[in-house]
Specification:
It contains ten helices and ten strands. The strands form two sheets. A six-stranded mixed β-sheet has the order 6-7-8-3-9-10, with helices on both faces. Strands 2-1-4-5 form a four-stranded antiparallel β-sheet, with helices on one face. The protein folds into two domains: 179 residues, P-loop containing nucleotide triphosphate hydrolases (Rossmann fold); 66 residues, no CATH class. By secondary structure, it is of the alpha/beta class.
Length: 259
C-alpha cells in the first residue's frame, strides 16, 4: 500500500511493522492522521487495528519503522508523559473501582498538578459534556450502568484536554440502543471539540457514521483509506474485494478477539 500523504499529519506511521515471536502482526504500515480528523481503523479480529492504536501511545513499540506524533518519533518521548498527553478509551472502560466518578475523571489533572478548584471545575464541565448530572460525581463505578461507565471513560480521557484521543471498540460491549445513543453523542462531541481521533471498530455502520476517513485493515496490512462516502463504491481493483466482503456481512455485533 503506498504512503498515505497528508499535509502536516499529527500522527504518522512510516513503514511500521510489528512482530511477536513468529507472528507478523503488522507489515509495512504507512499512514498519516490529520489534525482534527476522526480516522477509523476498520477490520475483523486479528487484522492489526488494536496493535496499530497501541503503537501511538507506546503501549507497544514497532519492531521496524517509525511512529511519529506531532512531528517527532514517539520512541524518543518519555512514555509516561506521552500517555498522559493522549486520551485513551477502551471497551471495558478500566475505571478504578474504589474511586468515585469525580476521582476517576480528575485523575490525570491531579497527577499533572492542577489546582484543586480547576480540577473540580473541569470534572463538572466534562460530566455535563458527556450527559451526566453533577449528582453522578460521588458515585462509584459499580453504581453505574454500562453506558454511564462508558461516558465516564470518555470524560476521563478528555480531562487534561489532550490533542489526541485513542478509542478501542469503546461502545462494543453495550446494548444496541445505548450504543447508538453514545455514537450520536460522540459525533456531536467531536464536531464541537475537533480532537484528533483514532477509533478502532469492526462495525462498518459505526465506521461510516463516525469516521472522517476509514482505514480498512486485513491480516496486518492496510488495504485502503477512503472517506465514508467513497468507501462502499471503491473502484480500486485490489481493495474493492475486501470492501465488498466487509459490506456483505463481516459486521459482528461483538468482537472480543485480538485485533
Amino acid at each position: 500500500m503506498p504512503l498515505t500523504i497528508l499535509e502536516d499529519p499529527l500522527i504518522e506511521f512510516r513503514n511500521v511493522s510489528y512482530r511477536v515471536a513468529d507472528t507478523q502482526v503488522l507489515s509495512g504500515l504507512n499512514l498519516g492522521v490529520q489534525r482534527g480528523e476522526a480516522l477509523v481503523l476498520l477490520g475483523r479480529s486479528g487484522s492489526g487495528k488494536t496493535t496499530t492504536l497501541k503503537l501511538v501511545n507506546r503501549l507497544l513499540s514497532p519492531t521496524a519503522g517509525e511512529v511519529r506524533v506531532n512531528g517527532l518519533p514517539n520512541n524518543d518521548a518519555d512514555p509516561i508523559r506521552l500517555r498522559r498527553s493522549i486520551g485513551y478509551v477502551i471497551q471495558d472502560v478500566g475505571l478504578f473501582p474504589h474511586f468515585t466518578v469525580e476521582r476517576n475523571v480528575g485523575l490525570v489533572p491531579r497527577i499533572e498538578g492542577w489546582p484543586e478548584q480547576r480540577t473540580r471545575s473541569r470534572v463538572q464541565e466534562l460530566l455535563q459534556m458527556v450527559g451526566l448530572g453533577p449528582e453522578m460525581s460521588q458515585r462509584y463505578p459499580h453504581q453505574l450502568s454500562g453506558g454511564q461507565r462508558q461516558r465516564v471513560g470518555v470524560a476521563r480521557a478528555l480531562a487534561a484536554d489532550p490533542a489526541i484521543l485513542l478509542m478501542d471498540e469503546p461502545f462494543g460491549a453495550l446494548d444496541p440502543l445505548t450504543r447508538a445513543e453514545l455514537q450520536r453523542e460522540f459525533l456531536s462531541l467531536q464536531q464541537r471539540l475537533h480532537k484528533t481521533v483514532v477509533f478502532v471498530t469492526h462495525d462498518l455502520r459505526e465506521a461510516l457514521l463516525l469516521g472522517s476517513r476509514i482505514a480498512l485493515m486485513e491480516a496486518g496490512r492496510l488495504v485502503t483509506v477512503l472517506a465514508p462516502q467513497d468507501f462502499l463504491r471503491s473502484t480500486d481493483p485490489w481493495a474493492s474485494a475486501y470492501v465488498r466482503a466487509f459490506a456483505d456481512g463481516l459486521q459482528p455485533v461483538t468482537d472480543r478477539g485480538t485485533s
